[in-house]
Design goal:
Length: 185
C-alpha cells in the first residue's frame, strides 16, 4: 500500500495554521518596539538613558570605555554584533552644541572604537554616523550619540533582507568585555 503525501498544511496543536515560514522569536525586541525606557521629554531629567548610564557600572551599563567628555557604550538594539555608540556626558541634542573638547574626544573615541572592533572582531568596514532629530531617525533625539557599526563581507543575508530579522551571535555582555579588553589606551 502506498502512502499519499499531501501538500495541505495540517493544523497544529495550539500553534496556529502552519504556513511554511520558519520563525526566530525575539521577544526582547518588544521593549524597543514599545519604547520601553524612552525619555518622556527632551530634558536631561526626563528619563534619558544616556544621562543615566554613566552612573551604572561598566558591566551593567554596557560601557566599553569612559573619557573625560564622552563614553563608548554598546547599543542595546544593535544592527550588528559590536554596534556601539560614542556619547557625550553632557545632555545636548545637536552636533553643533558640542564644545571643542567634546568634539575632539568624540572623534578620538570613534577612532578607538574602530581600532577595538578591528582588533576584537576583524571588522572589515564600518558605518559611522549620527541621526540628528527624530525626523532623521534618531531614536533618542534629545541626547546626541554617534553610531559605530562594524561590517563584514556577507553580513547581510536573507534574514534581514527577507525576514526583517537580524541574528546576533553574541550576548551583549560578552561583546562589551571583548571590546573593553581590546580598547586602545
Amino acid at each position: 500500500m502506498l502512502a499519499v503525501m499531501t501538500s495541505e498544511p495540517q493544523q497544529g496543536q495550539g500553534a496556529g495554521v502552519p504556513d511554511a515560514f520558519q520563525r526566530l522569536w525575539t521577544p526582547h525586541r518588544m521593549a524597543y518596539i514599545q519604547g520601553e525606557n524612552k525619555p518622556t521629554g527632551p530634558g536631561a531629567g526626563d528619563g534619558c538613558p544616556f544621562c543615566a548610564i554613566p552612573a551604572e557600572s561598566d558591566e551593567d551599563g554596557l560601557v566599553i570605555s569612559r573619557g573625560e567628555h564622552v563614553y563608548a557604550v554598546l547599543n542595546l538594539y544593535p544592527y550588528n554584533s559590536g554596534h556601539l555608540m560614542v556619547v557625550p556626558y553632557r545632555h545636548v541634542a545637536d552636533y553643533t552644541d558640542l564644545d571643542a573638547a567634546e568634539t575632539v574626544e568624540l572623534a578620538e573615541f570613534t577612532k578607538r572604537a574602530m581600532t577595538a572592533l578591528r582588533t576584537a572582531s576583524a571588522a572589515q568596514g564600518f558605518n559611522i554616523g549620527m541621526n540628528q532629530g527624530g525626523v532623521a531617525g534618531a531614536g533618542i533625539a534629545a541626547h546626541l550619540h554617534q553610531h559605530v557599526v562594524p561590517r563584514w563581507g556577507g553580513d547581510v543575508n536573507f534574514m534581514p533582507v527577507v525576514g526583517h530579522t537580524k541574528v546576533l551571535p553574541q550576548l551583549l555582555a560578552d561583546t562589551r568585555k571583548m571590546l573593553a579588553d581590546a580598547w586602545p589606551r
